[in-house]
Specification:
Layout lengths: L2 E3 L5 E4 L10 E6 L11 E16 L7 H13 L1 E11 L5 H19 L6 E8 L6 H10 L8 H10 L8 E9 L2 E10 L12 E6 L5 H14 L15 E6 L15 H21 L7 E9 L2 H13 L1 H8 L5 H9 L11 E4 L2 E5 L2 E2 L4 H8 L3 E7 L5 E8 L3 H8 L4
Parallel strand pairs: 5-6, 9-10, 11-15
Antiparallel strand pairs: 1-2, 2-7, 3-4, 4-5, 4-10, 7-8, 8-9, 11-16, 12-13, 12-15, 13-14
Helix pairs in contact: 1-2, 2-3, 5-6, 7-9
GO cellular component, one term: cytoplasm
Function: Catalyzes two activities which are involved in the cyclic version of arginine biosynthesis: the synthesis of N-acetylglutamate from glutamate and acetyl-CoA as the acetyl donor, and of ornithine by transacetylation between N(2)-acetylornithine and glutamate.
EC number: 2.3.1.35, 2.3.1.1
């Protein structure tokens, strides 16, 4: 397993790392019969010791049953031993029966691995409004412990088990030196549709062997979420099921982390990097997407204003359609900037597509359309917006809007 150091960072990328790289974690996945295909549809991450836990959840009013169960588990004492995840069925808008099924799913896996039920979290993703096939869940939960392992293959099985319309798995891993000890931070996520910045915007799972309390972990997770997962959008829809859960085994042997710890910033930076990689991977894998789109806003009156503007631009269907068509239509961009509801001086806005200046001080600039066309045909498009007002800055990520997005979602249930 190779490592590649990043310049000017306090962490090291772990190539080939996974959610089982941090000490104390195993993972696995299998097909239990929730999906019509034979793809994996049930997975789990398990920690050999009680792990400090934290979570952030969708802001959708219609929160799925698994979210209630997970909040209940983490809320007991801020610790988890495991999380079980199914794909193929969201168990959302399923009423009292759906809630009972989610709790039974928790109990079934807790029994299978020999821990208390309140030490297990539950996550689900898939079609809304259908009851879980509980016979399949029971059978799968009983068989899952035999599939758990610390190998990359076992972690890959977990990654495959959480996918729905995703085309690729999403994972990242770094190491950070804390108190002279090597601490690992890893993550896996799924998401390609129903993605919009209002945390959480997908299913995400972070493991670390850092020694850190639940409260400090919750604070760090919320901080990095606002800068990463909350800054992506695919289609403007916030799911009923989305959550991000972090578990810390504490087995790295460092002194307990808190904001007062001298290496706190290094830990948060590593956590942010992992979450940013996962967030960008979700945006790049948007349903039907052909391009990753990045919007960098600078010169705003505040970071919050910059975030709102960047989200508005990245979420604009007109901007996304123009990028898909490789049309250097900067008018779509400035129109989105102007409707974001934030302070903007209409006389000082600059816009670039990559290095191509299209607007300077809110006035059109003559540019080579052919050069712009070639740039927009690439698989990554960066839109720069400088308001030239103050120091507020933010970056958001999304994707283009394609014909395939409509095709995929027109037949989602069938």
């Amino acid at each position: 397993m190779g490592q590649e150091a990043l310049k000017d960072t306090s962490f090291t990328i772990v190539e080939g790392g996974s959610v089982t790289t941090p000490q104390g974690f195993t993972a696995g996945g299998l097909h239990c019969g929730l999906k019509k295909t034979t793809r994996h549809d049930l997975g789990a991450i398990v920690c050999e010791v009680p792990a400090a836990a934290a979570g952030v959840y969708t802001t959708n009013i219609f929160q799925a049953a698994p979210i209630k169960v997970t909040k209940d588990s983490i809320g007991q004492d801020g610790q988890l031993r495991a999380i079980i995840v199914n794909s193929g069925n969201a168990n959302a808008c399923t009423g009292q029966q759906g809630e009972e099924d989610a709790y039974e799913m928790r109990q079934a896996f807790a029994t299978a691995i020999g821990v208390s039920a309140d030490q297990v979290a539950v996550a689900s993703t898939g079609v809304i409004g259908e009851l879980l096939k509980m016979e399949a869940i029971r059978s799968g939960a009983a068989s899952l412990p035999a599939k758990l392992g610390s190998s990359y293959e076992a972690a890959d099985d977990f990654c495959q088990a959480i996918l729905t319309t995703d085309l690729v798995k999403k994972e990242a891993c770094v190491s950070v030196t804390i108190d002279g000890k090597t601490v690992h931070i890893a993550g896996a996520s799924k998401g390609s549709g129903m993605i919009h910045p209002n945390m959480a915007t997908m299913l995400g799972f972070v493991t670390t062997d850092a020694a850190i309390g639940s409260e400090a972990l919750q604070g760090a997770l919320r901080q990095v979420t606002d800068l990463t997962f909350n800054m992506i959008t695919v289609d403007g829809d916030t799911s009923t099921n989305d959550m991000l859960v972090a578990m810390a085994s504490g087995l790295a042997g460092n002194n307990e982390l808190s904001p007062a710890h001298p290496d706190w910033a290094a830990f948060v930076e590593g956590l942010r990097y992992v979450c940013e990689v996962l967030a960008k991977a979700i945006a790049r894998d948007g349903e039907g997407a052909t391009k990753l789109v990045e919007v960098q806003v600078r010169g705003a009156v505040s970071d919050e204003a910059a975030q709102a503007i960047a989200k508005t631009v990245i979420g604009s269907s007109l901007v996304k359609s123009a990028v898909f068509g490789a049309d250097a239509n900067w008018g779509r961009i400035i129109a989105a900037v102007g409707r974001a509801g934030q302070p903007v001086n209409p006389e000082t806005v600059d816009i670039r597509l990559g290095d191509i200046v299209t607007l300077a001080q809110s006035r059109p600039v003559v540019f080579d359309e052919e050069v712009a066309l070639e740039y927009l045909k690439g698989d990554t498009v960066v839109i720069h917006v400088d308001l030239n007002m103050d120091n507020g800055a933010a970056t958001a990520w999304g994707c283009d809007l394609t014909y395939d997005y409509v095709r995929i979602n027109a037949a989602y249930r069938t």
